């Protein structure tokens, strides 16, 4: 048996006259390494060697050598002792380590140790990892299987420095670690340091104490390394009991109760820079300061018709001063500005989240363009009904939902001058029934970016004759363009689903173009097209339809399909019912 001399790197020379190992016993292994227990001088040792297929390969041999150098440089009672690296018959170069009589942490936990034992084990683990960090070593593979608990006193022994690293090492950087315990930056192959071990310790704390220390664990598991505890000592401190923190929620509730009781149902007034006097109530003081603009009467009353009318353009600011502090204007409450017929315009702030039921209804003086802010989350039924002066509506709210407060929900009912709706590029979804029943609407300008048009969104907008759907659209919902007055329908290449009744009862449609990616067209989607002349589909595979998709279609309508799919369409049980099916002529 020949021993390998790495004394120049670890500060000592390994004896070359040691007897051979005997009584080998396999302990299993991993993808690249094998472990054996063997006897020498009456003592047991663990031998870590490369598997046959990796033995002699320079990369893996140097990797094994690096682990030996790191292990031999560490001398701590909580870390397995590394004695030497030797060439062992039948195993090749092998790291010789002390044999630990015990079980791994995950097996130890199955015996349900008490809280005190678990705290002591965690403290010893902290000591071992902290020692490594002080010596510039990052373990990078902390997990229960690499933590042994000894049988003679439940002491911790940290194992396996195969993925360990430090700033002084130039090769084999950034091992991937073990799933469930590896830090995100290490898993992604990015640069990692001792804070990757902090992440793994957070996971181990979760195993040891599933229902404790949630705040400390949350910090340790942060994907932002700067938010984690920056050392083992800081992580240890964050686990110390803080009995006084238990009083904080009680104090917080008490303060909140006092503040809320004071503000509850109180209505305040202020004058805007645009000149109008408005009323508001406080919604929230902590953690954020938020308020709602309201009607001066109770929730079921509108503004008084005599002496309460505003004039000029209403410019609602993003914040209002209340007792010297800025409060965000996040709501315009139900009927807040109803029947203010002397107002001549409206400007809504970014940050506004809710517009209530009939909030601006009956304000015919609003002129030109109204811009709905991108932050809006809820809009009430008839919020802008009878605002007969609005000409253009620019919609920028991406995650808005209509709050229905009427049998037939309509937001812009009887806006008799509203000719144009512009949908901003940031909008991904238009909600149900948003622009339902706007008789005056002539033009809808979609920007690329829109993905979904929901149920009844533009239903019964009977003056819309043409639309150009955005190139990003994926789905058109139930009755989205029901009973409009379209002459032609062109489905973009991106669209995949056309819902039931999506374009039903557009009786003047003469031509339909269906994009190549449409997979499903719902019932009555193109119903009652009495003047339909031509349907062109670029879908190679016939989209799924049902018997009434083209209900009441004239027998003279021609279906044009890709030449390669001509036979598929002609033999299709529903598409094949077209009187004439022809190949598309490019």
Describe the protein's architecture and organization:
This protein is α/β, with parallel strands linked by helices. The protein has ten helices and 32 strands. The longest helix is centred in the first third of the chain and has 20 residues, at 115-134. The chain is flat and about 100 Å long.
Counting DSSP E segments of at least 2 residues, the number of strands comes to: 32
Span between N and C termini?
Answer: 80 Å
Helix content: 10-25%
Which spans have pLDDT < 50 for at least 5 consecutive residues? 1-18, 298-307
Q: How much of the polypeptide forms β-strand, as a percent range?
A: 15-25%
Rg to the nearest angstrom? 36 Å
Mean pLDDT across the residues is 86
State the shape: flat
SS field, number of helical segments: 10
Oligomer: single chain
Summing up helix and strand content along with how strands pair, one would put the structural category as alpha/beta
Main sheet properties: 8 strands, mixed
Topology diagram in text:
Layout: H1 7-10, E1 22-29, E2 33-40, E3 43-50, H2 58-72, E4 82-88, E5 92-98, E6 102-104, H3 105-109, H4 115-134, E7 147-150, E8 156-158, H5 184-187, H6 195-208, H7 214-220, H8 232-238, H9 247-263, E9 268-271, E10 277-284, E11 290-294, E12 312-315, E13 319-322, E14 325-332, E15 343-347, E16 354-355, E17 368-372, E18 378-380, E19 390-395, E20 401-403, E21 420-423, E22 429-430, E23 443-446, E24 452-453, E25 475-476, E26 488-490, E27 497-498, E28 511-514, E29 520-521, E30 534-537, E31 558-561, H10 566-570, E32 580-583
Parallel strand pairs: 11-14, 12-15, 14-16, 16-18, 17-19, 18-20, 19-21, 21-23, 22-24, 24-25, 25-27, 26-28, 27-29, 28-30, 30-31, 31-32
Antiparallel strand pairs: 1-2, 2-3, 3-5, 4-5, 6-7, 7-8, 9-10, 10-11, 13-14
Helix pairs in contact: 4-6, 6-7
